[in-house]
User: What shape does this take?
Amino acid sequence: MDQLCIVTTGGTIDKIYFDDKSDFQVGEPQIGRILDELGVAFRYSVIPILRKDSLHLDDADRELLRATIAAQPARHVLVTHGTDSMVETAKVLAAIPGKTIVLTGALNPARFRGSDAEFNIGTAVGAVQSLPAGVYIAMNGRIWDPAKVRKNVDANRFEALG
Assistant: This one.
């Protein structure tokens, strides 16, 4: 892997809590800070294109993401994304040939103690380096084919279809 291209779209991984508003809002991308703190031994660039909860992503947002990734020279791309519509976005990105694209996110904000963010990012970084070209989802310690996975909202985890 020459350089990892990271594209951020927001989602829970980047959420921060505002006491005065008693709600969560999507903040600055956290992945660069996380990778720097972990002292990774590869070069990467971060392209922040959206700061949205994935429930609010629309077709235009997904097209922006697809076009942004397609325009990058990098063959290895990691996308941070909200979990609620990650599968839908992954299916749109499948139209991009010749790249290994892994989407990941978190079920709890990266700034929270006990968040799954670092674990999911680590899983995604390993996957993007070792898998053939295609689109994958890295969540809950597994690599998923977007056509064969769904988010179980009640259980708050990803699981195989059927």
